[in-house]
Design goal:
The complex is a heterodimer of chains A (291) and B (323). Chain A has 291 residues and is mainly alpha-helical. Chain A contains 11 helices and 2 strands; from the N terminus they run H-H-H-H-E-E-H-H-H-H-H-H-H. The relative contact order of chain A is 0.21. In chain B, helix 3 packs parallel to helix 5.
Chain lengths: 291, 323
């Protein structure tokens, strides 16, 4: 009985840590899909790109993967700005974002994956960092540092973005775009420029999310697709644009997945996320914190 | 041209295709032709939902593989003729399409697309964990050297079956375009709120389109195990099906049944050539780049480009004031 309780508490704790990491993966989609109404299904591909950049920096120069991701943030921001510019000119302005805009992002997802396959092959890649091996023990509960560090990075990322959005002028402008674009135009502000900045930010988060992903597990080009179901399930369940909701939803999914993996086997984990997504869409499409 | 005449014309074209392949007499023609035909069926099936109602399905691979794996299950249980297996495969995929649609189609279109994307991952997880159909090791199918009844080579038999499916799918697609149903679909694509307000039963029509589209994809997948003789989840759920299913109709043009056919013949043939001459990863990259290039530059596909060119030819001075 005691062992199964230990098993349970360990599963819950690692679920919470995993959930923190999921929040980092989802936060970009919470901005692009939740706030800007841009259905960026290619986001997981950008995350994998972030993983590979952390991998290159780590393997060739021995730089810490998370530090490498912080250095790469501006480059990802610019990438996001460029992608939004194409998306705006080709689809949003013409009002064709529904069918062709989706196909565009699907194409990006696919192209990124195939290019990564062509360059790096389909082997699993991993990074080296001092916090990947050791584990903290608190009573009967294990806190592996390779999960704890990503969780802390994720919390810092989500917290930082929350402060930026609620305290700065630009952040409030982004929230305003999420609420009412027409009103923003009437105030003589340019929603397109603000959306461009916000989309750049959302892609920038993929750099950090990618780095923590490769800290947690080895990465190969196609695992991005496993995250699509998770990311959107969390985003919708969290009430689309809400960061607090994203965090709660991410932790919930993390715990459920961790329990499933502990008691039924890890190969079922992707099915859990999909079940989550379907149930959310069918029962509560407005999310837990929805209006 | 009415539906019956069109179906007859399709059958004549089909017979001519088979005859031409027969005359060339090279086994590879049937082998490669089967793949192109399969893509015509898949692209047209995708277009029934994507092109006519405007809802994007990214799960082509899932519906296709469900059909293929239904055949694997049936093959292990009993010996049935392939056409019957296709019906069962179509039924399974159609029901899955209906279920996914029922849960997500009442929401914005993007949610349906995301659900289909996730569906592909999950169905693959289920199949990989299912030992009866071989799990991740895959399943072997021993096919007889010659076909039942006809006595022709088995690959030729599969080619013929796929050809018949293409005729069926194209005749259905064109019939939909010109029926009340097709107009109903078009109202959903053009303005769903207005359609709903005018009394179009949008949810029911969307579910019908999803079910039909999924069923045709499953039917296209059902003969696959006999064609490849070895099926594992990685090849059945190959990303190539998902991306081609979307790319072919969009490259060809989604407005009419002809678009997916053009896209499938063009991209399908291109890939058959590229796989032999270059590498298979590179040829998928070409498809992805063409998809992105076409949605940005030529949103109405090749069909749209042809129509524009014809307009310009007929009225050479009309376009100048716009440009």
């Amino acid at each position: 009985m005691e062992t199964s309780f230990d098993l349970l508490s360990n599963a819950v704790v690692s679920g919470v840590l995993l959930g923190g990491f999921y929040a980092a993966v989802t936060i970009g989609v919470s901005i692009s899909f939740g706030m800007l109404d841009i259905v960026n299904i290619a986001h997981p591909a950008f995350i994998i790109l972030g993983s590979y950049i952390a991998y290159i920096a780590n393997a060739t120069f021995g730089i810490d993967p998370i530090l490498a991701a912080v250095v790469a943030l501006p480059a990802f921001y610019l990438l996001g700005v460029a992608v939004y510019q194409i998306y705006y000119l080709a689809f949003e302005r013409r009002g064709e974002e529904a069918l062709r805009g989706l196909a565009f992002f699907f194409g990006l997802l696919f192209i990124t994956e195939v290019i990564l396959v062509l360059v790096f092959g389909v082997d699993y890649r991993l990074v080296e960092a001092p916090y990947i091996g050791p584990t903290l023990h608190v009573g009967a509960v294990d806190l592996p540092l390779r999960l704890l560090v990503p969780c802390l990075v994720a919390l810092a990322l989500v917290g930082g973005l929350q402060v930026f959005l609620s305290r700065t002028f630009l952040g409030r402008a982004i929230l305003a775009v999420a609420q009412d674009q027409l009103a923003l135009r009437l105030m003589a502000a340019n929603p397109v420029r603000i959306k461009r900045i916000a989309f750049g930010l959302s892609i920038a988060t993929a750099s950090l999310a990618g780095a923590v992903l490769i800290v947690i597990q080895p990465v190969e080009p196609s695992i991005g697709r496993d995250y699509i179901g998770r990311v959107f399930a969390i985003c919708v369940l969290g009430g689309m644009g809400s960061f607090a909701g994203t965090l709660v939803a991410a932790m919930t999914l993390g715990i459920v997945e961790s329990l499933t993996a502990t008691f039924y086997g890890p190969s079922w984990a992707p099915a859990v996320a999909f079940g989550f997504l379907l149930i959310t869409l069918a029962v509560r499409p407005a999310g837990i914190f929805g209006r | 041209m009415n539906g019956t005449k069109f179906a007859l014309l399709l059958m004549l074209t089909g017979a001519a295709t088979f005859g031409a392949a027969w005359l060339i007499g090279n086994a590879y023609v049937f082998f490669a032709g089967y793949v192109v035909l399969q893509y015509i069926a898949l692209a047209t099936a995708w277009n029934v939902l994507g092109g006519y109602t405007g809802y994007v399905n990214f799960g082509t691979a899932a519906f296709f593989a469900l059909g293929a794996y239904t055949t694997v299950v049936l093959h292990k249980l009993t010996a049935l003729p392939i056409p019957i297996m296709m019906l069962v495969g179509g039924l399974v995929s159609g029901v899955v399409g209906l279920g996914t649609g029922y849960l997500t189609l009442r929401l914005r279109g993007a949610f349906f697309s995301i659900a289909t994307l996730a569906l592909a991952v999950v169905v693959q997880t289920l199949i990989t964990n299912w030992n009866f159909v071989g799990g991740s090791r895959g399943a072997y199918i021993v096919r007889p050297p010659t076909a039942p009844l006809l006595g022709i080579d088995y690959i030729q038999y599969l080619f013929l079956i796929m050809l018949l499916l293409v005729v069926l799918v194209l005749a259905t697609a064109r019939a939909i375009e010109r029926s009340r149903l097709g107009y109903g679909f078009a109202t959903i694509r053009d303005d769903e709120v207005a359609a709903e307000a005018s009394g179009v039963p949008t949810l029911r029509l969307k579910l019908l389109a999803t079910t039909m589209s999924g069923a045709f994809m499953g039917m296209a997948g059902a003969p696959l195990p006999y064609y490849v003789t070895y099926l594992d989840p990685a090849s059945g759920f190959s990303l190539a099906y998902a991306v081609n299913g979307v790319a072919m109709p969009l490259v060809g043009g989604t407005s009419s049944w002809l678009g997916p056919v053009i896209g499938a013949i063009l991209l399908g043939t291109l890939q058959q050539v590229a796989t032999v001459t270059i590498s298979s990863a590179l040829n998928l990259l070409i498809v992805g780049l063409m998809l992105v290039a076409f949605v940005i530059v030529a949103p109405n596909g090749i069909l749209g480009l042809l129509q524009d060119a014809r307009e310009r030819f007929r009225r050479p001075f009309a376009g100048r004031s716009q440009a």
